[in-house]
Amino acid sequence: MKNNILSFLCISLFFSACSSNNNQDNGNKFSNDFEAIGTWTENQQVLRESAKSGIYSTFTDTVYAYTQTMKMEWKYLKNKSPKSVEVIAWVMSQNADAKGKLVFSLEKDGKNLIWEGSEIQKVIKVSNKWMEVKLNVSLKPGIEDASIIKVYGVNDGKRKVYWDDFTVTFN
What is d(CA 152, CA 131) in angstroms, rounded to the nearest whole number? Predict the structure, then answer.
């Protein structure tokens, strides 16, 4: 009961933060610019060094291989039968040779049902410039409510990468 209340409060905070900025569309579009944390985790990785919008962003480097992570149960989607998901994030590095991936995963009982990533090195062509990275994933019907949606960035190299303005849209 206590866990259910805590989960509800965390999700409510995320939705209220999103809706106050028009960042939620019919329950199937979610975004975070790291000005409000909501259901994203690892708040020690939110910093003021660089941001695409606002004053905060998240980052990856040799110590923190993963960004803030959106984690949400499938049952909280209003439309439970989307055909695809589009994930967008903005990335920037002081080094044009930074490597990493924007990741969407769907898990159940600790096992990946879906794991797909889009390489950021395809968009980071110059240093110190925010670039958009996109990931489109096809979804099969019949995803169970207990499945966990995760969206995050992962660092595959040794360069610091800033991440901001994540948007996740289920179509």
Answer: 16
Q: Are 117 and 135 in contact (CB under 8 A)?
A: yes
Pair of tokens at residue 154: 């992962």
pLDDT in tens, 26-55: 568 888 777 665 445 555 677 666 777 778
Tokens of 110: 């600790």
Give, in words, the CATH class of 2-170: mainly beta
Token reading at 123: 């968009």
Strand intervals (E) in 70-171: 70-73, 84-93, 100-108, 111-119, 131-138, 148-155, 161-170
pTM exceeding 0.85: no
Q: Chain-centre distance of CA 142, in angstroms? A: 23
- Residue owning tokens 């606002």: 54
Give the CA diameter of the chain.
50
End-to-end CA, the chain: 32
Q: What is the DSSP letter of 40?
A: B
Residue ranges per domain, the chain?
2-170
Helices (H), the chain: 2-20
Please provide residue 89's backbone torsions phi and psi, each rounded to the nearest 5 degrees. Answer: -145, 160
